[in-house]
Automatic annotation (TrEMBL):
UniProt xrefs under HAMAP family: Trp_synth_alpha
SUPFAM superfamilies (alphabetical): Ribulose-phoshate binding barrel
Entry keyword set: Amino-acid biosynthesis, Aromatic amino acid biosynthesis, Lyase, Tryptophan biosynthesis
Catalytic residue list: E46, D57
GO molecular function terms listed in the Swiss-Prot or TrEMBL record: tryptophan synthase activity
InterPro entries: Aldolase_TIM (IPR013785), RibuloseP-bd_barrel (IPR011060), Trp_synthase_alpha_AS (IPR018204), Trp_synthase_suA (IPR002028)
Reaction catalysis annotation: (1S,2R)-1-C-(indol-3-yl)glycerol 3-phosphate + L-serine = D-glyceraldehyde 3-phosphate + L-tryptophan + H2O
Annotated function: The alpha subunit is responsible for the aldol cleavage of indoleglycerol phosphate to indole and glyceraldehyde 3-phosphate.
Enzyme Commission number, as recorded: 4.2.1.20
The protein's name in its UniProt record: Tryptophan synthase alpha chain
Entry's family note: Belongs to the TrpA family.
Coiled coil region boundaries: none
Length: 254
């Protein structure tokens, strides 16, 4: 069974998802980070594929992306690294990338590699929703890849409903900020409160700007889980002991 499916079926609240940029801080760190996040009982790991033009990303993620690219991270390297730890990692892994990365690699080959590397699903924030339905959905299913779409305070109620129906993983609720990486959570309370009335039937997690335990608990009060990216990356950016830094960060938010 798909690891993400299994997780979402067995744990319905207080989920923690950690985002990490592949190949950061050093090319070979990602497998170590995955194992350490798993040791710390993180529920879901979002692995970002570094990209030269990360539109939705704030300064922290952009800087990690640039460093990772300079380190030599690319899709084939990432797939090999993931394959090398596939038997040890049971924590669901969701790849986050941009639509063009899937297109350039070739959608079918990309999805096939994801499955072979033990990946459970994909977040491609700029993949057009209708194009997914018309052109890619069948291939996602063929290779057992769940799809995660984002909703923001600007998403219309009608589109939210369509996204809820099309989502096979969880729904990514953007807390408010325009890009990732804010140092303070800036929750749009009205929007987050309204989530309960939107009739969502799929699990949903809140991300963007979450960096403390208080933020996490607040996200949990509105949704099934919290997603943390930039704060985690800042915590592992300048360390001589990556495992210890992962442990320390998770301790601060749990
Ligand atoms: O960094 P933050 O503010 O903690 O937010 C998570 C976010 O970085 C991560 O989920 C992510 C990285 N790149 C993205 C692009 C779009 C949406 C989400 C993301």
């Amino acid at each position: 069974m798909n690891a993400l499916d299994l997780k979402l079926q067995t744990k319905k609240e207080n989920l923690i998802t950690i985002y990490t940029t592949a190949g950061y801080p050093n090319l070979l760190d990602t497998p170590i980070i995955l194992k350490q996040l798993q040791n710390n009982k993180v529920d879901i790991i979002e692995v970002g594929i570094p990209y030269s033009d990360p539109l939705a990303d704030g300064p922290t993620i952009q800087a990690t992306s640039e460093k990772a690219l300079a380190n030599g991270m690319k899709l084939n390297v990432l797939f090999e690294q993931l394959k090398s730890v596939k038997d040890e990692i049971h924590t669901p892994i969701v790849l986050m990338g941009y639509y063009n990365q899937l297109l350039k690699y070739g959608p079918e080959e990309f999805l096939k590699q994801c499955q072979e590397a033990g990946v459970s699903g994909l977040i491609l924030p700029d993949m057009p929703f209708q194009i997914y339905l018309d052109q890619h959905k069948a291939l996602f299913e063929k290779y057992d890849q769940k799809v995660v779409f984002l909703i923001t305070p600007q998403t219309s109620a009608e589109r939210v409903k369509e996204i809820n129906d099309a989502t096979s993983g969880f729904i990514y609720v953007v807390s408010n900020s325009a890009t990732t990486g804010a140092t303070e959570a800036n929750y749009n309370e009205e929007f987050l409160t309204s989530l309960k009335d939107l009739g969502l039937t799929k699990p949903y997690q809140i991300g963007f700007g979450i960096s403390t335990k208080t933020d996490v608990e607040k996200a949990w009060s509105y949704a099934n889980g919290a997603i943390i990216g930039s704060a985690f990356l800042r915590a592992i950016s300048d360390t001589s002991n990556i495992k210890e830094s992962v442990d320390q960060f998770i301790n601060t938010i749990k």
